[in-house]
Write a structure and sequence with these properties.
Blueprint: H1 2-12, E1 25-34, E2 43-52, E3 55-61, E4 71-75, E5 80-83, E6 85-90, H2 125-132, E7 135-140, E8 148-156, H3 162-165, E9 166-176, H4 190-215, H5 229-235, E10 241-245, H6 248-261, E11 266-270, H7 279-285, E12 289-291, E13 296-297, H8 301-307, E14 315-316, H9 317-323, E15 329-331, H10 343-352, H11 361-364, H12 368-373, E16 391-394, E17 405-410, E18 413-417
Parallel strand pairs: 1-4, 1-5, 6-7, 9-10, 10-11, 11-12, 12-15
Antiparallel strand pairs: 1-2, 2-3, 5-16, 7-8, 8-9, 13-14, 16-17, 17-18
Helix pairs in contact: 4-5
Length: 425
Amino acid sequence: MILALTLAVLASDTPAAPGQVGGSGLAIRSAKILTCAREGAGVVDRGVLLVRDGKIEAIERARDLEIPADYELVDVGDKWLMPGIIDLHCHAGAIESLFINDLNDVVYLTNPGLRAWTGTKPGNPRLLTGLQAGVTTVLVIPGSGSSIGGWGVLLKTGHDRYEEMLLRNPGSMKIAQWGNPESWGPGVAKTFETYAIRDAFTRGLAYARRWHAFEEGSGEEPEFDPQWEIFRHLLEKDTQASVHTQVYQVVLKTITQIKGEFGVDVYIDHGSIGAWRAGGIAQEMGVPAILGPRNADTPARGFINWGQLDTEGFKGIAAGYQEMGLELIGFNTDSPVIPQQELPVQATIAARLGFDDSEMQAVRGLTIVPAIAAGIDDRVGSLEVGKDADVLVISGHPADPRSWVQRVWQDGEVVYDSETERRRW
């Protein structure tokens, strides 16, 4: 009996050999690793990725890296590795029906105090379905029924508890700069919407500056007002404004007003109906575009009149921004308007309609570009040393609709494996 217990203790202290389950780290060997780093080729052929304590420890060619003896080895053969996919326009974090949307509380035209995180639901089936397509991070935001809908929240989709899911709160301040808020109250149009947004920004940033002065020791303590708290985060640049904006004139106002006039970091959501013509000034002012789910300007007379377009015929929106010189172009779904799992298809359609993917722009538009836009590229969006180990095993190019996700790790833990489960619920 004593001998048996002694042997058991000795066995438990013996490091696991590579390839055995239970190692102190993880090594994933793959035919191709899409690192999706912002600079460089973004690809490692015949590589190995090491994970320890939920973080990426190393990425090298297999011939150049010695796998530690106590690491579990997973060889995925001819499958590819890539970072988890990011969607910065998601309404599917809480609701389960298109007809029940508690994120459109439109008592006022601007509602910066509302918070989307209070309605999020861990284990939401819509998010778990998206996870099977590789969507590991989402920005859950209020709807576009008002010009300022409130706080969004950045969540990881593969975990079971809110505290584990939380990536950043606030994730953004959601703005809808035309295209839905005009149905508010007695009916408003672009001029009044712009006025209301400017008024809210003027008051909110004044509140934030009073708090900043107090914290710096040069002013009195202001009275706390939850309506304006989001502006403290915008002033300190630890969150951004995400703007439902479309049509050239409106997108131009988004760039010049929010980034130019107020100096707040902002990115374009949707950006359709001729808005690609603002791509040049967006590049000059450092404003990314996260496009979708409308991917083309169509020859319909209604759209031509609505957007005051000067061309007739199909025009790929992402290709249009690219032609105007904008570099940071990503994709979104507006889920559940377009199902969360169809996010890679947005990149597919963009490439089909002329978006240049010769330097992995389509793949980066699903990963590192939205991470940069949301200010979370220090943790997610690419496979680089020190970042969260949110890793997909995929059968081929992520913008090829024939590709499928075999396995997903989030923070180094397997959260989806197609060989054992097609559904997580």
